[in-house]
Amino acid sequence: MTATAPAAHRAATAPRGDEIVLRTRDLTKQYGKRLAVDRLNIEVRRGEIFGFLGPNGAGKTTTIRMALGLIAPTSGSVEILGGDIATHRATILPRVGALVETPALYLYMSGRDNLRAVAAVLGGVPEARMDAVLDLVGLRARARDRVKTYSLGMKQRLGVAIALLQDPDLLVLDEPANGLDPAGIVEMRDLLRRLAAEGKTVFISSHVLTEVRQICTRVAIVNLGRLVTESTVEDLVRGSGDFTVTVERAADALALVRAQPWGRGARLDGDGTLITPAPNNRGRELTRFLVDAGFVPDSLAPRAQDLEEVFLRLTDNGNGVAK
Amino acid sequence: MSATLTVSPAAASTATNPHTARPSFIGLVRGEFLKVSRQLTTWLMLLALAGVVVLPFLIALTVGNLKADIQAEPLADLYRFMGQGLTILRVFSGPVLIIVTARLIGMEYSSGTIRVLLGRGVGRIQLLAAKLLTVFLIAAAILAAGMLLEYALSLFVLRAVTGNLDALKAINGTFWADTRVYVATVAISMAVTILMAAAITVVARSLAGGLSASIAWFPADNIGLVFFILANLLTKSDFWLLVTGDLLGPNLNAMPRALLSAQAPGSATRVLEGPLVPVDGGHTLLVSAIYAAIFLAVAVVLTWRRDVKE
Fold first, then answer.
1. In which element (H, E) is residue A175 found?
2. N or C: which end of chain B has fewer CB within 10 A?
3. Cβ of A2 and B1 within 8 Å?
4. How many cross-chain Cβ pairs, A to B, lie less than 8 Å apart?
5. A319: distance to nearest CA of chain B, Å?
6. Is A145 exposed, middle or buried (0-12, 13-18, 19+ CB in 10 A)?
7. How confident is the model at residue A318 (pLDDT cuts 50, 70, 90)?
8. What is the ipTM of this complex?
9. B23 at interface of A, judged by CB pairs closer than 8 A
10. In the predicted model, is pLDDT for residue A310 greater than 70?
11. Closest to B21 (Cβ–Cβ): which among A2, A10, A122?
12. Residue among A6, A10, A123 minimizing CB distance to B21
């Protein structure tokens, strides 16, 4: 990977952190009696790689479609780059690149002609830029071939190339790893990180939690159209103050701990490891308590939660039932 | 993805500046022409249409008494050449325009590419207008090329059959006026056909649905006359005959005959059946205009109002 001078310059000069690039305000979409999206409020800041998570039917794609002006909200609004999408879509959306669900392509045309067809919408894009995005996604050698001969992964990459065609400020990607092989997923991850480093904002809707864990700075989890949580990944997996304790006679230690006022939430995990809160939430005091009681821990560490575990807990095992 | 991902400086510097870029109507039309031109079926259909236009002239060369006919009534034969040629162009350009229109609109829904275009900030009506303008321009090109071809073929047949072009001396001002009127009726027919295919495809929101329903419209419209005749015979009510006066296909069929001068022989314009009641030129124009307005309104309102879920 090569970071170029213009990219580095832009990364250095791009305002980061405070600027809200995408904001939804009480965004709601109702189909008949069903609320697909229910008063959703999220904020995405410049330079973030923002993960948008939720089980099937949670309202992720509906939200993205409302953000792109494809679906009219029942109420609420979407603001992108400071402008309301309902009134300024013609000036805002050229600054947004999007890949929604499966890549939508003209299968009878070549990869390059697909780029030309989309580029024409905004009055054309130089061939050099098309070469660059084709290089970026590794499709330059197949650019003259008809898209119907492409594999799913290649179509996905062409979809990303189309999204990047006009050097957008905000990139909205719905399941970008779909169809990519492991090497492709790693490269996609690197690409998104580099785009974020250049000051671009990346909004990813994904089911692949390990991917989200690795690349996203913040995530929002939605369920049944409602925002369940919006947080940094770090905070989300930090846990709730529990500690993981490896100790002999764990069952006896558990009984002792649960008898304490601070230890009622203690339990054993599947491996027989003790998971327990600590007195005053301090590991040092937990160690002292256990040693004093004759349970010398082999190891004791704050317990980090897995993102998948958090996701399943917040969305009732991904079944889309509100908690 | 490629083993190495590199952002070249050229890529960054030569990209359209997204901060100033706006959806461009001309660009949209250019993009639509690109899509049409890359479809092999477009070119095959145009080739087939040219073949159909040429065919009657080739057959004319085999008619034994054509030379005597031309020498006896040159104006009548020139009307026949003009009428047959333009009628064939009108009838057979219809399916071509229906297929091009349905594909251009329907494929965006079927392949989901409509969300890529609208997601770039293009307005829905702007996109529909660009597509319609593209097809109208294609129709105009077909009409112009078809007329040129027919003119050249007419000269060729005259020369081949009679050895000279003396028959052209019989042409008078009324002939040219009738030719202009006939060309106008072909253009009206093309326009209504395009709007019909557009409306149906927008309703269907798919290539397959739009194409099949659009292509079935005129055959159903014309064959339907048989059922109206049957209904009239069975019920003894003239209502069924009157209804045919409001059908689009029969009115388009009757339009040239109703608008041309008395000098034009009926055989020059009569190919498909008109309504089962007498209609004048004004009526055929009014019916066509009403259908065109309805088709346009349906296409515009549905495109404007409906969510894009494709």
1. none
2. C
3. no
4. 198
5. 23
6. middle
7. low
8. 0.83
9. yes
10. yes
11. A122
12. A123
Residue B107's region, left for phi above 0, alpha for psi from -120 to 50, else beta, is alpha
- Nearest chain A residue to B39 by CA: give it: A108
- Quote the number of domains for chain B: 1
Render pLDDT for A35-87 as a digit per residue (tens, 0 to 9): 999 999 999 999 899 999 988 888 999 999 999 999 999 999 999 999 999 99
Report mean pLDDT in 10-residue bins for chain B, 310 residues: 40 50 89 95 95 90 83 89 89 95 95 93 95 97 95 91 89 92 95 97 94 92 87 90 92 89 67 80 95 98 89
Residue type for A237, please? V
Domain A5-237 is in which class?
Answer: alpha beta
User: Does B4 reside within a domain?
Assistant: no
The dotted CATH code for A243-303 is 3.30.70
Among A45, A17, A1, which Cα is nearest to A202's? A45
Q: Does B124 touch chain A (CB under 8 A)?
A: no
Q: Which domain holds residue B221?
A: 24-305
B54 in any annotated domain: yes
* Per-domain boundaries in chain A: 5-237, 243-303
Structural domain includes residue B259:
yes
- Residues from chain B that touch A6, judged by Cβ atoms under 8 A, are 9, 12-13
CB-based contact (8 Å) between B10 and chain A? yes
Who among A117, A122, A135 is closest to B35 (CB)? A117
Indicate yes or no: CB of A95 within 8 angstroms of CB of B39: no
Residue B258 lies in a domain: yes
A119 with B16: Cβ contact below 8 A: yes
Question: Residues B169, B171, B176, B181: is their CA dihedral positive or negative?
Answer: negative
- Within 8 A of B116 by CB-CB distance, chain A residues are 98, 104, 118, 162
